Amino acid sequence: MRILEEKSGTKRPAIVAAATALFSRRGIDATSMREVAGAAGVREAAIYRHFRGKEEMARKIFASWYGWYCLELQKIVSGPGGTLDKLRKIVGHEFSVATDHSDAFIYFCENEARFARSLPGQSASVRRVYSAFIRGGQNLAEVRQGSPGLLADLLSGALCAVALTWLRTGRKKKLMTHFEEVVQGCWRMISV
Q1: How far is CA 58 from CA 43, 77, 154, 178, in A?
Q2: 94 is in which domain, residue-wise?
Q3: What pLDDT digit, counting tens, does each position of 89-135 carry?
Q4: Which of 76, 84, 100 is nearest to 180 (CA)?
Q5: Which class for 132: exposed (0-12), middle (13-18), buried (19 or more C-beta within 10 A)?
Q6: Which one of 25, 40, 62, 113 has the fewest CB atoms closer than 10 angstroms to its CB?
Q7: Choice among 7-11, 32-36, 101-105 with the minimum mean pLDDT
């Protein structure tokens, strides 16, 4: 994570980790800078050495996590394998991020609508990556015809909903036990 590794030897990684955790649990608007500082073990003034304010901090944290997530998806979609193989890798990525980086996953899933449009135009987005995946499957006659954007939204929404539900009910360790069921459900949703 670029934002977590920047400025090593400073309090920035602790601030980012604390803010991500608080934002994912309470929301950005319900979290104060004082609470972030307390959770990070720093004075509130230390945050302002790295960020101009809470909105900038929230946007930069989102851009970093979301950007990393989308680039990893892009590698899957542009990599080798058939459509079903890529779908398995996509579901694996989704579940891995949800279990290994739960706070960040919740944070960027819940704030995509708030921040994704403010990202630079060339930035990767889940919708664009999934749309490319759908178009590739349509070109191979493995994915049903229709709007790639709509099918991408359906796939993204389904995967995010499953992972968020399991995280919120405290069952994240069991999420992977349903991997194949989720893959097959998504495949039925998009395949010919």
Answers
A1: 18, 28, 26, 32
A2: 2-190
A3: 999 999 999 999 999 999 989 998 899 888 887 788 899 999 999 99
A4: 84
A5: middle
A6: 113
A7: 7-11
User: What is the CATH number for 43?
Assistant: 1.10.357.10
User: Where does the pLDDT of residue 6 fall: very low under 50, low under 70, confident under 90, or very high at 90 and above?
Assistant: low
The residues, ordered by sequence, that sit 6+ positions from 106 with a Cβ below 8 Å of its Cβ are 24, 25, 164, 167
Task: Supply φ then ψ for residue 53, to 5 degrees.
Answer: -175, 180
- 156 touches 127 (CB < 8 A): yes
User: pTM for the whole thing?
Assistant: 0.89
Q: Rounded distance, CA 47 to CA 50, Å?
A: 6
The confidence score (pLDDT) of residue 7 equals 62
Enumerate residues 6+ apart whose C-beta is below 8 A from 177: none
Q: Which three-class secondary structure string do you get for the chain?
A: CHHHHCCCCCCHHHHHHHHHHHHHHHCCCCCCHHHHHHHHCCCHHHHCCCCCCHHHHHHHHHHHHHHHHHHHHHHHHHCCCCHHHHHHHHHHHHHHHHHHCHHHHHHHHHHHHHHHHHCCCCCCCHHHHHHHHHHHHHHCCCECCCCHHHHHHHHHHHHHHHHHHHHHCCCHHHHHHHHHHHHHHHHHHHEC
